[in-house]
């Protein structure tokens, strides 16, 4: 005997059978029946077999049984139900939430969280200012805009500790960052809380050049419009073509761990 392999492919689908008066031509007029048919590909040819006749198509539609049957079967193939609804313009709008950006570890390892919380240790805010600052930093990184825009933006993300924050909390957090320090606390040119945060972050990594043999350094310029910038800005050659505005030059270097330090 010579062994052989038979390839059999079976498919199931529904067809509408057009009959007149039942199975044959008759007096009852044209009727359409819905059938489940098995399509078997075997021996190089197709073989079809009617598995079940579900009933008259008009009656199934009128009674809602056809919709019920299809919904019942769709439970085992969700993609078919969703794609079918979408193609018919019937897809439902469902609420969705995206996972928040995983910047918590970077926020902690860079020292930002510790510095902000340390400066807030003696303050008695009734909300988490550190969380409000973290939220606004994330928003400016991913979709820069106003504090009001940040309040709306956070609804699409899951960010720990910001659930109870309201818009006025963001305003108050920004006011705290711009809060002017007492005269005796202004060491050199540290006029506000934001500058103090930057100085403390720099102090945490002031051994920046202790183990470096190669440093990458780049600069850019920032110009100021309207009031502001007179204390730290100077007029001069402007790469932004705004010689009428005071500007400052910002440089960035990378330390041995690839973390930037602002100079």
Provide structural commentary.
α6 crosses α8 (167-177). A hairpin with a 5-residue loop joins β7 (247-254) and β8. This protein has helices at residues 57-63, 65-74, 78-87, 104-109, 112-119, 129-142, 147-153, 167-177, 193-204, and strands at residues 8-20, 30-42, 45-56, 98-99, 157-158, 217-223, 247-254, 260-262. The chain folds into three domains: 8-87, no CATH class; 100-204, no CATH class; 210-263, no CATH class. The longest helix has 14 residues, at 129-142. The radius of gyration is 35 Å and the shape is elongated. The strands form three sheets. A three-stranded antiparallel beta sheet has the order 1-2-3. Strands 6-7-8 form a three-stranded antiparallel beta sheet, with no helix packed on it. The protein has a two-stranded parallel ribbon with strand order 4-5. Residues 1-10 and 19-28 have low confidence and may be disordered. Helices cover 32% and strands 23% of the residues. The chain is built from nine helices and eight strands. By secondary structure, the chain is of the alpha+beta class.
Distance between the termini: 86 Å
Strand order of the largest sheet: 1-2-3
Question: Main beta sheet: strand number and arrangement?
Answer: 3 strands, antiparallel
Share of β-strand residues: 15-25%
Number of helical runs? 9
By DSSP, the count of extended strands is 8
- Spans of 5+ residues with little confidence (pLDDT < 50)? 1-10, 19-28
Shape: elongated
Rg to the nearest angstrom? Answer: 35 Å
Quaternary structure state of the chains depicted:
single chain
Find the structural class using helix and strand composition. Answer: alpha+beta
């Amino acid at each position: 005997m010579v062994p052989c392999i038979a390839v059999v492919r079976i498919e199931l689908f529904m067809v509408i059978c057009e009959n007149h008066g039942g199975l044959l031509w008759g007096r009852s007029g044209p009727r359409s029946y819905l059938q489940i048919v098995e399509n078997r590909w075997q021996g190089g040819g197709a073989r079809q077999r009617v598995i079940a006749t579900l009933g008259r198509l008009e009656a199934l539609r009128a009674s809602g049984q056809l919709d019920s049957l299809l919904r019942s079967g769709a439970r085992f193939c969700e993609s078919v139900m969703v794609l079918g609804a979408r193609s018919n313009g019937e897809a439902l709008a469902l609420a969705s939430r995206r996972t928040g950006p995983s910047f918590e570890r970077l926020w902690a390892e860079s020292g930002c969280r510790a510095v902000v919380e340390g400066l807030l240790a003696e303050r008695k805010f009734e909300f988490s200012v550190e969380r409000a600052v973290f939220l606004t930093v994330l928003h400016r990184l991913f979709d820069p805009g106003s504090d009001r825009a940040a309040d709306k933006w956070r609804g699409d993300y899951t960010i720990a500790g910001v659930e109870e924050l309201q818009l006025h909390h963001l305003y108050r957090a920004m006011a705290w960052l711009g809060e002017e320090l007492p005269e005796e606390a202004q060491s050199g040119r540290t006029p506000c809380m934001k500058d103090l945060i930057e100085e403390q972050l720099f102090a945490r990594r002031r051994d920046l050049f202790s183990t470096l043999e190669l440093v990458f350094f780049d600069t850019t310029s920032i110009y100021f419009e309207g009031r502001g910038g007179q204390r730290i800005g100077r007029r001069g050659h402007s790469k932004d073509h705004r010689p009428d505005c005071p500007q400052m030059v910002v440089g960035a270097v990378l330390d041995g761990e690839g973390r930037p330090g602002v100079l």
